Amino acid sequence: MKYSYFPLQHILNQHPHISKHAFLDTSLEFISYKNNNIVMIGDSQLVSTSSSFNDNEDEILSVSDFSHLFHHNINMNQLSCTINASLDLFNIETVEKISQRFHFILNQLCVSINDNQISKPMYELLLILSNEQYLIRSLNNTQISFPSSLTCIHHEFVYQVMKHPQKLAVELDDQSLTYCELLYYVQILFFTLVNEYHVLPGEV
After folding, report:
1. pLDDT single digits (tens) 43-67
2. Distances (CA, A) of 188 to 16, 136, 183, 184
3. Which domain of life is it from (predicted)?
4. What's the predicted TM-score (pTM) here?
């Protein structure tokens, strides 16, 4: 976005005639706080934060469609993330998928830091989750296991002729051949090569 390095107020002043800016539908906030009055409920910590910001003294813009908040607790030296999404625009499954993907990327970044690979470029990070990788591998795995007795391709071809004699085996433009017809022409070619040209098995 043009002038993205400006403070937010300067960016909004570039287009004073627009009542609602499209880029405000998605927000990323980083909040660093130091609070000695920590409220804990079990393992959860309550933090008072705001999901809106002031454009000027008279107007408050609310971040409602999608927001990603980072909370940095200086006292505990902890970093937590919160994703808020409008259910009018996002399914719960979609938000869960976004959070899983973000968590997966963070894990890769942490591994890169531990392995002293901080210079690793961002485009080398994987975005595909493990279950999606498994799905892609299963879709690309087109290998078919044939019975051990059918070790040669011509054996398998004859088996298909016997199983589906009237099904189409070859089709090109407006012409087609069934398995039975294709076997007939293959046999004619075979006898022609053997009887007229004296071709021996293994020479072709």
Report:
1. 666 655 555 444 444 443 444 578 8
2. 82, 43, 9, 6
3. Eukaryota
4. 0.45
